[in-house]
Write a structure and sequence with these properties.
Layout lengths: L10 E5 L2 E5 L5 H7 L2 H8 L7 H14 L1 E9 L2 E10 L7
């Protein structure tokens, strides 16, 4: 969800090898991230891996309440998703 009266760009370049891509759908890599107990602990302070349903609820909520992006890193001439970020930061009730 764009911030009022400010269009959300599809891509935001951070550095030549790091960029943000606007969220459009849940990607398969995201479920891998949120099935890792250590990653989930850093996000939620619990180590319970996400289900597909919980992941989809989280992304729906974040996308409705802020600007949601995937973080992409350039590796071997291809940008690959490595994480996600939302602005403004929100605590999700999922």
């Amino acid at each position: 969800m764009p911030i009022a009266n400010i269009p959300q760009p599809e891509l935001l370049t951070v550095t030549p090898t790091l960029r943000l891509r606007r969220f459009e759908k849940v990607i398969r890599e995201a479920l891998e991230w949120y099935r890792d107990p250590e990653t989930v602990y850093l996000v939620d302070r619990i180590r319970e891996p996400y289900s597909q349903e919980k992941l989809e609820r989280m992304y729906r909520y974040l996308n409705a309440h802020g600007e949601l992006y995937y973080i992409e890193l350039l590796e071997q001439d291809v940008f690959r998703p490595i994480g996600d970020v939302t602005s403004p930061g929100r605590i999700c009730p999922w």
